[in-house]
Amino acid sequence: MRVATWNVNGIRAAVRKGFSAHVERVGPDVLLLQEVRANPEQIPPEWREPAGWSAIWHPAERPGYSGTAVLARSALKDEARGAGEVDSEGRVVVSRVNGVRLVSVYLPSGSSGEHRQAEKDRWLGFFLGWSESLSRSKVPTILGGDFNIAHTPRDIFYAKANEKTSGFLPHERAWFGEFLSQGWADLIRAKYGDIDGPYSWWSNRGQARALDRGWRIDYLLANKAAAKLVTDCHIDRPSGLEVSDHAMVVADLDV
Asked: Which residue in the list 29, 87, 146, 236 is annotated as catalytic?
């Protein structure tokens, strides 16, 4: 089973830019989406209820903002929305496919001001408590999504220059370390080891995409039960060059 997570930076714009062609090329069996930014009735018809797919859409209450989804080529069980709290911004949707629990996650960004950083920190607090039981679960569980945090200097091209930037703040990085210590495997880092990158997001400024000077803030994370099933993983850079400012992160599971 191939699982991909992708912050599409708006599903309507993504479809216009070649979303369908990249999904066909990569060939995921399960697709975890973030930043959908549309209510189901606004989604292009071919993806609202796509032929051959099951779909769960979890939009934000605010129009054109945030939102997550899970799409699968087989039967899809809708388990929960949110991370144990009211989720008016559509940031977490929990599903199950072929015996594997799959969670699409879009944690807040704090880059627009102190009020949003405060909201992000609030989310980090209760998300940590909520995720702990999933990490220990005997059900194979994959968390996929945009966590809006680069964990180490290996995960961001300009580490020193961004030490005071939301997404690479010391307390955010410490939080991510604590989160991983629950028992989550960072699949990309486990495969590629202690190297710079690979990155999953690039700024639109300064030729960052062309020069591959990015951040790794999109993750596929597996609990122990799921990590045993993973056979391969990679970041699909072309999807982040043509459709979104984020690339798909892809993992193959022996399911």
From this structure: 146
